[in-house]
Amino acid sequence: MNFTNTKRLLLLLIVLMSFNSNGQLTVTNNQTALQLVQRLVGSNVTVLNPVLNCPGAHNANFTSSPSNLGLTGGIILATGTATDLNNDVNFFVGQTTSSPGDAQLDSIAAPNNTNDACVLEFDFVPDVDSAALLSFEYVFGSEEYPEFACSPYNDVFAFFLSGPGYNPPVNIALVPGTNIPVAINSINMAPTGTGYSLGTCQGMGAGSPFTGYYVDNLNQPGSIIALDGFTTVLQASAIIQPCDTYHMKLAIANVSDHAYQSAVFLRENSFTVDTVTLDLSGVLATDNGYLIEGCTPATITASRTMATPRKKKICLDFSGTAVNGVDYPFLADSIIIQPNTTSTSVVLNPFQDNFDEPGFETIKIRRLNCCSLEPIDSVVIQVRDSLKMSLLSKDTTICGGSGLVTLHASGDPLYDFSWTPPAGIANPNDTLTTVSPTTTTTYTVTASYGGCPTLSRSFTAFVEPIPIVSIAPTDTNFCIRDPYLLNAQVEPSWFQNYTYTWTPTTHLDDPTVMQPYFYTKEAGTTTYVLTVNTPIGCIGSDSITITARPLPVLVDVTPDFTAKYGDIAQLNAGGATFYTWTPTRLLDYPNEKDPKATATDTATFQVIGTDKYGCRDTAYVKMDIDYTMFEMIPNAFSPNGDGRNDVFSVKNMKFQRLIEFRVFNRWGQEIFSTTDANRGWDGTHKGIPQEIGVYHYLIRITTPNGLQRTYKGDVSLLR
């Protein structure tokens, strides 16, 4: 190991002063690659081929109580023994073993080399229908802090993402808002008196070091780990495409030496994309949850966190002793959350088969990754034959329209209760719930079980309409090129005498309608408030914040050009984040900035450049085709077997097509013919060598643009 004299002395002093303590961090090392990945990965991601290249003592699962670490649990990848992190901050976390570094991390640490690498790699398939954001959270810490900041001991780590759009691999463990890797020297500056230059840290990139992301663990209450310093909780993120397989490499290593330990903590279940939850309602809660044949349907609801303009497919698998389509109505293997909605549902209603069966049947529902068909989660439901129930209901009345109406029924908790109409009711299937009606409404509660008659009670609530105003979304990014409809809704919709007032009125086509259009050519952010009044003074309001973003401008676009037929032409564009070239039939990679085109047909290519907000610019490139090509016909050949000019054939045939090739002797007799451009006349007829002399030929050739050429002439056969 290579140490400076200063570092040798400091290492010795710290080791002599170190002691063990019981912290609030629980660390379990020697995990397998699968155990680490299962702890890290959350929603909508299927993991394949996990591989761990790391000493067993250097990786771990952990849990922690609330502390300055900012994470309550997850996994650890360290350059030393992970269990040593569970000590008082005065405990020196050094190295007990030495191991190799990592070549990819060497590229970040250059010109220094890495040692003691701990690497976790895996493939993953996102369960998404369109481009989505992958993200996860982490904390990077080191014993190098603070005294070896801005030194050659710039311990590093990286999260290398590879796959579509990330070739070569891209490190997404970056200082927020920059392309600078998170490392010792990019987060904290050298303390006074260490002898290390601040310029070393500043050399990491503009703005470095970013001390706002640094936690001084030596001077923090509630410290639970031995490392002297670490980052705040940071997030790694990247845009990924649907049903493509990506590769993630999580790696950390010492730089220049093997002395001081560094570690990265990754939050449990934070490796997620396009979060979707699957909920089951309507199952009777007693006896671990069950359904009754013919009388207690359940609802399977798939929900996402926010509505998007794209649909979302949820793939399901049904198994168990109850048979899909036999013991309950057939349920398809997928359901769709429609565009601009957050959820969808299907009903599971077992048939009443009138057989007295002991025990229960089971229905196992699994949610699958629609790309890999691997299971994401599952639930098992019991199905029984019958249930004994009773019913009680109660009426109530409300006037006004500004308060809650209590809907109250009582009875056996295994009843199915249903309040109608269900609109606006907090829980239409609860025995005690509330509603805020906006119109005069008669509410009916119905209790049922099996095939027995239902019991119903009703009451009427008289209310005046109070405007309920909602604008979705409440804030949006807007490209200045297109008008944007302010999607306001007012309930109850049956009331027609509302007055609408938008403030401010700038950039709106009509500030007195419910849904005006916003349009501007100026970038900026504006908050609009919609106030809705009724003639009697009922009032409601909501607001929306709009950010108008400038359009990208495509630059360096390939000018119109002419290419030789069959050539490969390089196209190019710049100035945007994402690119789409059309038509695609002549292109190799139409979603890259610089695809190649095969010059077999005249085409005008359109390139649409889009930034990360969806704003776009368009350009066009015209490709003409030069069909010029020449073939050569020899005037003599010598089929003597010497390997030179033994065959009479058409030369320089590349993209042309031979449609006729005929040879005649001096009496006009055809002695050879072919349409194969790779063949020629070898000077024989029916296997018999022909005499030396002059022969006549007729050759017709067509080029890719349909032009035909005819050649007539003489060729001399020499021996």
Low-confidence stretches: 1-23, 387-393
Please state roughly what percent of the residues sit in beta strands, choosing from under 5%, 5-15%, 15-25%, 25-35%, 35-45% or over 45%: 35-45%
Q: What is the overall silhouette?
A: extended
First-last Cα distance: 80 Å
What is the typical, i.e. mean, pLDDT? 84
**Number of strand elements:** 50
> Strand pairing plus helix content: what structural class?
mainly beta
- Helical content, roughly? under 10%
Radius of gyration: 37 Å
Number of helices: 5
| Biggest pleated sheet | 9 strands, antiparallel
Overview of the structural elements:
The chain contains 5 helices and 50 strands. Strands 1, 3, 4, 6, 9, 10, 11, 13 and 14 form a 9-stranded antiparallel beta sheet that branches. A 5-stranded antiparallel beta sheet has the order 2-5-12-7-8. Strands 16-22-21-18-19 form a 5-stranded mixed beta sheet, with no helix packed on it. A hairpin with a 5-residue loop joins β45 (657-664) and β46 (670-674). The chain is extended, with a radius of gyration of 37 Å.
Architecture blueprint of SSEs:
Layout: H1 5-17, E1 25-29, H2 33-40, E2 45-53, E3 59-64, E4 73-78, H3 103-109, E5 114-126, E6 132-142, E7 156-163, E8 166-171, H4 184-187, H5 198-202, E9 214-216, E10 229-231, E11 234-240, E12 246-255, E13 262-267, E14 272-273, E15 276-281, E16 290-292, E17 298-304, E18 312-319, E19 334-337, E20 343-348, E21 361-368, E22 375-384, E23 391-393, E24 399-400, E25 405-411, E26 416-420, E27 432-435, E28 441-448, E29 455-463, E30 468-471, E31 475-479, E32 484-485, E33 488-491, E34 499-503, E35 517-518, E36 524-533, E37 539-549, E38 561-564, E39 568-570, E40 578-582, E41 596-598, E42 603-610, E43 616-626, E44 636-637, E45 657-664, E46 670-674, E47 684-685, E48 688-689, E49 693-702, E50 708-717
Parallel strand pairs: 16-22, 24-29, 31-37, 38-43, 44-50
Antiparallel strand pairs: 1-3, 2-5, 3-4, 4-13, 5-12, 6-10, 6-11, 6-13, 6-14, 7-8, 7-12, 9-10, 15-17, 17-20, 18-19, 18-21, 21-22, 23-25, 25-27, 26-28, 28-29, 30-33, 32-35, 34-36, 36-37, 39-41, 40-42, 42-43, 45-46, 45-49, 47-48, 49-50
